[in-house]
Amino acid sequence: MQEAHIVSKEKLLPVTVLSGYLGAGKTTVLNHVLNNRQGLKVAVIVNDLSEVNIDAELIKEGGGLSRTEEKLVEMSNGCICCTLREDLLREVERLAKDGRFDYILIESTGVGEPVPVAQTFTYIDEEHGIDLSTYCRLDTMVTVVDAYRFWHDFSSGETLLERQQAVGEDDTRDVVDLLISQIEFCDVLLLNKCDLVQEDELNELEQVLRKLQPRASIVRTSHGKVEPKEILNTGRFNFEKASTSAGWMQELQNAHHTPETEEYGISSFVYERRRPFHTERLTAWMADWPEEVVRAKGILWLTTRNAVAQNLSQAGPSIQIGPAGLWVAALPAAEREATLAEEPELKLDWDPVYGDRITKLVLIGINMDKAVLTEGLDRCLLTDAEMQSNWSKLKDELPNASSEQLEMILSGSEK
Ligand SMILES: Nc1nc2c(ncn2[C@@H]2O[C@H](COP(=O)(O)OP(=O)(O)OP(=O)(O)O)[C@@H](O)[C@H]2O)c(=O)[nH]1
């Protein structure tokens, strides 16, 4: 029988997770905090993809942990966001039940995604019957950004596999997509290695990060020297807020339009149209992606995939398009009515002719010319004459139109 373990909310063990790309300075931050932790008894979990846990060695050498009173848990040969998720659950449960610690600090691998790690603390794991929220609370998600290498990594166009940093053979992520996912889901951004970057460049980078992630506090550090109170016991984590904190999402929901920064020309806007794209023209436009657009994200209406809304996600040179789900307008009548009855808010933005079909794209960039970009995208929309033509003759050379999707498009299309 499972031992009952009920802890009052104030006594829940706080947890801080450090994420950030390889070499950004996570271990350096960890060592600094351990050496300045003001009497807190800390348990540290260090995750390394390889068999040899180098970071754990660096922490032992760092001398910030008391050998008798504290604990260093090494989790090697996998990633706590995927292959070692169960091990993470069990370790955290064990450390919390131990009752000796005031805090758990976790250093994720440089290639780890923060969302699944946060989910581990937020949701009951039905499979293993572990509910970490009865023992501990996720206090702060921290992302360490390497101010010196940021733009190099952001614009490299390389995949993790090409850099031999992938979690496995099927890990097809681009370096930039990983950087973006770490920045867009966090409570605190540590802009580290500031000693290596000019003030002006730092100001610009900070403004870009602020646009990409308006909710997080941004702290500049050199050699990981951060005030522990910036990342411990901040009480900042909130899954709901973190999940919707990305700059593009805030912009899309119109909740938070951060003003343009004149000095560095960093801005954002939403491109919204109730007319589908001519897929070939849009593909050509995207192939020559305007490099002043740093991040674009949103939903596309493509003529050649008229039944399925498409997600577009771009960061630097990485552009991904994939199905987001059927437009409600493409559902058979009975299903459509049922969906509208269930989700009446859909009616608020329902077009009498096109239903929920729409393109809504957030563009974030440096020195963007909104008029030029808007004109460029408008030229990719169907013309009035094309709107009247037979859309099934239009070509679609986007790579991920699987036959299954195309089938849905053909049978679901009302055109
Ligand atoms: N100049 C400079 N070097 C730094 C700074 N922070 C860390 N470093 C160095 O950068 C290198 C990587 O730092 P780590 O702390 O090991 O980075 P990490 O994010 O833990 O790296 P992985 O565990 O490989 O993902 C080390 O050689 C550090 O000494 C900094 O602010 N300035």
Automatic annotation (TrEMBL):
Keywords: Chaperone, Hydrolase, Nucleotide-binding
Sections of the chain in a coiled coil: none
Record-linked InterPro entries: CobW-likC_sf, CobW-like_C, CobW/HypB/UreG_nucleotide-bd, P-loop_NTPase, Zn_Chap_cDPG_Synth
Domain called CobW C-terminal: residue spans: 266-381
Catalysed reaction equations from the record: GTP + H2O = GDP + phosphate + H(+)
CDD domains, per database record: CobW-like (cd03112)
Domain of life: Bacteria
Pfam family, one: cobW
Protein name stated in the entry: GTP-binding protein
